[in-house]
Amino acid sequence: MTVKVIENAHVVTVSGAEHPRGHVVIDGDRITAVGPGVAPDLARAERIDGRGCLVTPGLVNAHHHLYQWASQGLATDSTLFDWLVALYEPWSKMDAEVAGGAATAALGWLALSGCATTTDHHYVFPRGRGDLFAAEIEAAAELGLRFHPCRGSMDLGRSEGGLPPDELVEDLDTILAETEAAIDRYHDPSPGSMLRVAVAPCSPFSVTRELLVRSAELARSKGVRLHTHLAETAEEEEHTVGRFGMTPAEYMDSLGWLGEDVWLAHCVHLHDGDIKRIAETGTGTAHCPSSNARLGSGIARVAHLLRAGAPVGLGVDGAASAEMVPLAGEIRQAIYMQRARYGPDALTARQALEMATLGGARCLGRQDELGSLEPGKLADIAIWRVDGFHAAIDDPVIAFAYGGTPPLARLLVGGRTVVRDDELVTVPQDEVARRGADAHRRLKRLAREVM
Q1: What is the pLDDT of residues 294-310, one digit of tens each?
Q2: Most CB atoms within 10 A, among 51, 108, 296, 365?
Q3: What is the pTM (predicted TM-score) of this model?
Q4: How far apart are CA 411 and CA 424, in angstroms?
Q5: Pairing state of beta strands 284-287 and 381-385?
């Protein structure tokens, strides 16, 4: 097993002390020591000089739609519902080649912004278009990122009062069978796992009550987590109140969808009672500030969720509603949007960094292994250069969080180098970008062929 020593760096453990001149020792895929001062003298260790660098846990992305890399730049001035209606058509023509290429580029972009672990919510499965879920799993394995894909689903088509077109939904039995098969094939619950699967019906306006109930039963019988979108827009609340007589959070609570094994994307429009209930049940939320702003959905009550004790992570959301957004940049977005709404003490830089690391790990149920720099945890570590222009700011955490994202000197995932000096090393960076562009062009062609 390879031993690595990061030394002479400003080390932010997230869970406790900061070490302005500290070190981290890695043996294989685990951290074995973190502390101040000079690192121990270990024979044959690879020594990484961290002078001028900030060392943080690898970032954790708590919500994404990787396939959307292929459909960026469309419906650029639309609300969520109008945006979805515009994009359902091209998405319905997507095949596994598109999904794989898009996932490769989206995952590569995440890695370049310090992301070591990401989830993905894939809920579009056009008939006869190949194994889209397998395509994104293969992409994550090739790039070397820790991956938590969610087998999503929609079963409430337009003819039954849902938003998606009927040809893009699946029937209940197919969804449950395919979801169970994905869990059985891919989910690895072992310590240090690189791949875990969650169950993720899309949203209250695109799935039936029965699918939500049966999905929760399936997930809990298999010991996997649950994920969905919730309370993203005011229109969603109007839909849910009109249809069920409850807020979106109350509706999900009535179906057993709040709990420590659940995390919810967005949660922009929450009432005080919703926040209290989410916190007391330990339900996680994934805050996606750029996507919420791009679609004009609003600003989530993150400051209130954190004060209530709820787990809150950060997510970039799909690239089609947050074009080219880096995960590290969402730290700044979260800080500034909370302060714009609630004042300058609403969210600190260190709180936002915790959201992007330990908060995301809590959402994914991996807080015992990920999200902070501690002996025994996995060696998912980002090393950021905060010298150069960033050195004009004394506090390196402020330099990292407030300004443009600093250069990424190294990203380690399980002790393995994935990015070095802002360049992917597991797959040639130019090839990763090309696959994403090819996926975009292929999706456009497939959509034209059937129109």
Answers
A1: 999 999 999 999 999 99
A2: 108
A3: 0.97
A4: 9
A5: unpaired
